[in-house]
Amino acid sequence: MMNVNDFSNNVAIVTGAGQGIGFEIARQLCINGASVVLNDIDETLAKKAAERISVNGNCIAVAGDAADAVFIQKMVDEAVKYFEKLTIVIANAGITLFGDFFDYPPESLQRVMSLNIGGSFLLTQAAAKQMKIQNSSGSILLMSSVTGHQAHKNLAAYVITKAALEMLAKTLVIELSPLNISLNAIAPGATVTERTTEDENYMHTWSRITPMGRPATVEDIANAALFMVSPASRHITGQSLIIDGGWTSISPSPY
Questions:
Q1: What is the spatial order of strands in the sheet that 59-61 belongs to?
Q2: Which domains are seen in the chain, by residue range?
Q3: With a cut of 50, which residues of the chain have pLDDT below it?
Q4: Active-site residue among 82, 104, 158, 255?
C-alpha cells in the first residue's frame, strides 16, 4: 500500500513560508521526510521559521522577493546546491491588496500582478527546467483561492490573479505532462492564520457563513497541499482543488 505521507528523497521549495499556510506546508513536508528550501521576503521571519522546522529534518531559509526572476533562479540553484535536486515546488507567496475598483491605484495592481502571477509563472518555469535537466518526475502546486471562483468585494485585482493561476495549471499540462511533471492548484477559502486573526471578527464571521461551521485551519490546507504533490496524486494534473468548508457552494458575503 502506498504511503501518501512519505516524502523521503524529495526536495521542495515553498515560497511565502515564514508563517501561515506556507509555514505549515513546509513543516509537514519536512516532518514527512522532505528536504525543504523555505522562502520568505522577510529574512528574520524566514530564518526563524527554518530553525523551527529544522528540529524535524532538513530545512534551509532563502530570503528574498519571490517575484524577482533572478532570485527565483537562486532558489532553484540553492535547492540543487544543498540537496542535489528539486522535485516539489509550492508557489505559495502572494499578496492581497484590497481597494475600491474605481480608485484602485496602478502601483497596487502592478504589485499584485507581479507577485501572484509573475512570481508563480517564473518559479514554475525555473523549476520545470531543473526537473527536465534531472530527467526526473516532479510536482508543482500553485496557490489559488476561492476568490478565483466567486466574486468578492474590493478584490478585483487579486481575484483575477487567482483565476489566472488555475488556467496556468490547466494550460501547462500540454508542456509538462510529457516530462512527467504534474501541475495543479489548490484554492483555500477563509483560513485562520496570523494575518487573518488580526481581525477580531474573523472567526465569528466565517464560522457563521461557512456550511461546515468554521474557517479552515492551516493544517486543513497543508493536508490538501501534501496530497496534491504526493505520489498518490500522480495521475492528477491541470486541476484545482477547493478547500473551503463548502463556502463556494452558497457564497454568502462576509460583509
A1: 59-61, 35-38, 11-14, 88-91, 138-143, 181-188, 240-243
A2: 11-243 (3.40.50.720)
A3: 1-2
A4: 158
